[in-house]
Design a protein that fits this description.
heterodimer, A: 456 residues, alpha+beta, Beta-Lactamase, Helix Hairpins, Heat Shock Protein 90, 3 domains, rod-shaped, B: alpha/beta, Rossmann fold, Arc Repressor Mutant, subunit A, 2 domains, 4-stranded antiparallel beta sheet
């Protein structure tokens, strides 16, 4: 069901309910007010008459009071006024054929002072018990209540006609308004469906008003930003990778083509094949690393857990102890015991291994490697420093770039190790930086956000 | 044949040809199948010492074949090959019943070393004491001694020694060593394995004549059989 229809139905239900309640309330109040006025007047007349008659006692004076009252026309066109005592009618004046107070079941004793409808529904009676001489009597003051009944009926009819009319108008208005409100959203959907995946630079126009739709538009534009950036990164990655492979492929191709170009000795063939194998192995390694790099995002989202960076570092440090010993390096570790981060254990291990591998690789025998872990401002800070030759300042801005191989680096790397480090750090919402140390050597600093505190 | 009967299930024709050539020249008796269905037919009336199985095959998947074999009680050691090398794929492969797992492209020497290790494992399962010359390793108490003298090896060195001794006479690759001793994340850590093996070598050979651990160029390391 469309939002518009749903909103309109809710609106109709609410308005309908309000109108019904209001209508019923108006009707009840009107009824009460009309009857109240009439009943009040009847009772007052009856009270006064009964009090007077009670003082006078039975006799001609009594009859004339009753008769006078029955000729009053101010409360209604007809009257019937009586005095009864038990079953005996003491006086009865007015329209004696019209109506009598309806009997109430279960009242064998004398009724209380009150108001009653006529048994035939025509008159309205006020009943006042009083003392007439030595008998208890009841003064019945009745009047034709037709006018009141009619005006109440008229009000009821009017309400029954007007309220549905009001409801229809309100619901139609609501339906129209709902439509108007949803127009920008429908327009947004239309614009979005027209965005061509080949031109992700298109952005939606939020319009001048800063309302909820504008917020939605902004959020969508931000998403388009991210999607465009991701698509561009992917494209560049694929292009870079293909490009990088060209060199070893060129070496392969030319080498093999030349070798096959004419008859050669077994030794020459053997050479050519061996050289081809070397290039192929290099390509395999490159493919491996590229795949790891490309797959980083996918796998990372699946396996995140809380882990202690300190423990991870200690594990790697312990594993490389033979190397440290063989090169007689000084390995200085410093740091707080526990730094809990949230991340993928495999990737973080790869990160730590790459950094420490580099540090050990480039530090000459008897050198010094420092590994430090500290915690500050909600971040874990890992520092790996070596006492090797450092990084040529000209290369420093580029060392984390894919495929970057500075002139001074030894060729056992293939330019992807640090790039992988940067991607891993990025995926964990951290940062990595490299700098040359004043005393010689270089230092890598990785910052990773600590995992949110959780009760153990 | 002495070296063992192998079944190769691989649909890529050139790769199958090279594998057949390389493995038979290395001493194995090789039978090839290029689909799970034809492998099933072959396995119906022949047994093998090991199976090299590509997990991605046309028609029925290699993984399904593997699961069915295991479900039917076939315990032949299986070395799985596949181009998919994520950790998840590796875990699935091993969980489905593979004994070892190699991602393509691989070094041929790696394949041979792992195959031989598989066959050896299958053959010499429950030996509590390994002995080569006067080097003895108690696998239960995890203690190595040479000429009666305890060698004082670290836990990792002990693991490596056991690996080499169980595969005495055939090479163990750096990758295999890394996997067993530290975990596969360390298998390309610069020089780590070389240095580590050398240290073990020194501890074992200390004073006692020839080096029992031999470097096999281009492949890895092996322990002499005597």
């Amino acid at each position: 069901m469309s939002i518009r229809l749903r909103l309109t139905i809710y609106w109709a239900a609410i308005i309908g309910l309000i109108l019904v309640i209001a209508g019923v309330a108006v009707l009840i109040l009107f009824e009460r007010q009309q009857w109240g006025a009439l009943d009040g007047a009847l009772l007052e007349e009856a009270d006064t008459a009964a009090a007077t008659i009670s003082r006078l006692g039975p006799g001609a004076g009594t009859d004339s009071i009753v008769r006078n009252l029955s000729e009053e026309r101010d409360l209604g066109p007809r009257r019937r006024v009586r005095i009864v005592s038990g079953d005996r009618v003491i006086a009865d004046f007015g329209d004696t054929t019209s109506d009598l107070p309806e009997k109430r079941a279960g009242h064998s004793k004398a009724p209380d002072r009150g108001v009653r409808d006529g048994a035939r529904g025509k008159l309205r009676f006020a009943l006042v018990p009083f003392q007439l001489g030595d008998t208890s009597a009841i003064f019945e003051n009745g009047v034709d209540a037709g006018a009141v009944r009619k005006s109440i009926a008229r009000l009821r009819t009017s309400l029954l006609l007007i309220l549905p009319l009001i409801l229809s108008i309100a619901v139609s208005g609501g339906y129209l308004l709902a439509g108007r409100a949803l127009v920008p959203i429908i327009a947004l959907a239309g614009e979005l469906s027209r965005i061509d995946p080949r031109d992700l630079s298109h952005r939606l126009d939020a319009g001048p008003v800063n309302d909820e739709v504008a917020r939605l538009t902004d959020a969508i534009n931000a998403l388009l930003d991210r999607v465009e950036r991701a698509a561009n990164t992917e494209r560049r990655f694929a292009a870079d990778a293909a490009h990088e492979m060209r060199t070893p492929l060129a070496v392969l191709r030319t080498g093999l083509e030349v070798a096959l170009g004419r008859e050669r000795s077994p030794a020459e063939y053997s050479d050519a094949v061996a050289s081809a194998l070397r290039e192929v192995v290099a390509l395999c390694t490159m493919a491996d690393q590229l795949l790891t790099l490309a797959r980083l995002d996918q796998e990372a989202s699946l396996e995140r857990m809380r882990l202690d960076l300190g423990a991870l570092i200690r594990e790697v440090v312990e594993a490389v102890e033979p190397l440290v010993q063989a090169k007689q390096l000084t390995l200085a570790t410093a740091g707080t015991g526990i730094a809990t981060v949230e991340g993928n254990p495999i990737h973080l291990r790869r990160l730590v291994i790459n950094l420490i591998d580099n540090a050990l690789k480039f530090t000459p025998a008897h050198g010094r490697v420092e590994i430090g872990l500290s915690v500050r401002d909600g971040s874990a800070i890992l520092r790996v420093a070596d006492s090797g030759p450092g990084i040529p300042p000209a290369d420093l801005p580029f060392i984390f770039d894919r495929f970057f191989r500075g002139k001074a680096r030894d060729e056992s790397g293939n330019g992807l190790g640090l790039s992988l480090c940067r991607e891993i750090v990025r995926l964990h919402h951290g940062a990595i930086a490299a700098a040359n140390r004043t005393g010689g050597g270089c230092e890598f600093v990785v910052t990773l956000p600590l995992a949110p505190y959780r009760d153990p | 044949m002495r070296d063992g009967r192998l079944l190769i299930v691989e649909d890529e024709a050139d790769l199958q040809k090279s594998l057949r050539l390389g493995l038979s020249e290395d001493g194995f008796t090789v039978t090839c199948a290029d689909s799970a269905e034809s492998a099933e037919r072959i396995l119906a009336d022949q047994t093998f010492d090991a199976i090299v199985l590509d997990l991605r095959l046309p028609g029925k998947d290699g993984i399904d074949l593997l699961r069915e074999l295991r479900a039917a009680g076939n315990q032949t050691p299986v070395l799985a090959l596949t181009a998919r090398g994520s950790l998840d794929d590796r875990v699935i492969g091993l969980d489905s019943g593979a004994d070892d797992y190699l991602t393509k492209p691989f070094a041929f020497a790696e394949l041979i070393a792992r195959l031989r290790a598989l066959l050896r494992r299958h053959a010499n399962i429950a030996q509590s004491t390994l002995k080569i010359a006067d080097l003895e390793f108690d696998t239960v108490r995890r203690r190595a001694a040479r000429g009666g003298r305890d060698l004082g090896l670290s836990p990792k060195e002990t693991i490596l020694l056991e690996l080499l001794m169980r595969n005495a006479g055939q090479p163990v690759t750096r990758t295999m060593i890394a996997e067993v001793v530290w975990g596969s994340a360390y298998n390309d850590f610069t020089n780590l394995i070389e240095v580590f093996v050398n240290r073990l070598r020194q501890k074992i050979n200390d004073g006692a004549g020839d080096s029992l651990i031999v470097t096999v160029r281009g492949v890895g390391y092996s322990m002499r059989t005597h």
